[in-house]
Structures are given as structure tokens and as C-alpha cells.
Give the backbone structure.
Amino acid sequence: MMREELVFGPIFSRRLGSSLGINLLPEKGKLCNFDCIYCECGWNRDGRDDKRLPTADELRTALDRKLSECAANGTGIDSITFSGDGEPTLNPQFPEMIDITLELRDRYFPEAKVSVLSNATRIARNGVFEALCKVDNPILKLDAPSEVLAEKINHPQGDYIVAEVVKDLKRFNGNFVLQTMFLRSGDFDSSSPEVLGPWMDIVRELRPREVMVYTIDRETPQKDLEKFTKEQMASMVAPLVEEGFKIQIRG
């Protein structure tokens, strides 16, 4: 199970290159309003030992120290990435922390991109939406085109209505990256027509500047999951590629 410090890395990301991570969630726990069956951080129930959230002041101190250290050592950073052990937008100081990160990025690594990996459940909140509009890469998740499938894959806490999430994603006017996990288990298959067809229709409706599709890469809490090959995923998204969508595939 991953348990990350407030600022960690940089590590090599298959999606983002040399990535310096920011974890706005408990360092020894997990806090998320999803409980995804594929989450490399494990089940939510296994991460409840620590509930303390870092503050904006703590982020400023830790990030300033790490970026100055990387600059002095000649360590390259392609992306400063908000990920960590759960959903970063759950931290109530998320908007302020984005501003701090952009300020320090501009000071030390102005060429680096700031990326946020989010499940898009809180983008209806203006503060969260406005903060995400400031970063280079708002990478927003939509794994399932229906509530029934979202319940199987993501186990959302509270109400999760796909049409509402799609409506909120439209506020970005396409200036975001849509991220989707492709996988199969005993009772669903991302490649089946009843899943893939409606998902592609959502992509066409949202018209994101990029679509990032990927499959499981590490140990997962649910054990009956199967991954796809890059070739299989390329075949799955081929109609969208032919229509001109930019699609990044990660095996």
C-alpha cells in the first residue's frame, strides 16, 4: 500500500515523466470519497489510522525545501503532481495550496507542469473548479458511463450521478484531460459494447483536449481484476482516434 509524505519523489511516472508528488492527505492513512477496486493505495478501511490533513503553511515549507534541493542538485522535474493517498480536492485548503504550488513552481522550475489527479467529484464547487482551471493539467477521472458500473468500479461515497459529473466537466470547455481506467472483472468488462459505446459518447460530448486511458499496473485490493494490453486498448479507442481525439494509452 502506498503511503506518501506531503511532498515526495521525484519518481518516474508512466504518464507524466519525472514527477514530484504532493499528497494533501494523511501521511499514514488514506482519505477518499471513492474506494476503487484497483486503487494502489488499498481499501479505504485499511487507511484510517491517520486522519490529520496537512496545512497550506506546511506545504509551502516542504515544497520550497524540496524544489530548492532539486534545483541545487540538478534534478529535473517535468511535473509537480497532486496525487497521494486519496482525493486531493478533499483538503479544504486545496485552492490555496494550488496557488502556493504555482508560485514556487514559477520560482524554481518554471518549465515544469502542475498536474492534478482528481476523481472530479468536487468540481461543482467553485473554489475547486477555479483552482483546477489554473493548473497545466487537470486530469479528471471518469471510469464508468453509468451509476451501476461506477458502483462496481469506484464505490463512490454518497451520491454519484454520471450526468451531473459530465455537466460539471463541461464547464472546462474541453480544457482538461479525461482519465479512464480500462479493466475487467467477473461482472463487468470495459471493452464490452454496452460499456465502451456510452463511454465514447461521453468523450464526444465533452471533447477534452486529451484522453488518457490506462490499465492496472500494480497490485490491486480486489483480486479478480484483469488488465488489457496496449494493443487491446488501442483497438478499443480506435474510433475516437479516427475522429481526431488525442488519446494517450498507457499499459
About this structure: The mean pLDDT is 93. Helices lie at 56-73, 94-108, 126-134, 147-153, 162-169, 193-206, 230-242.
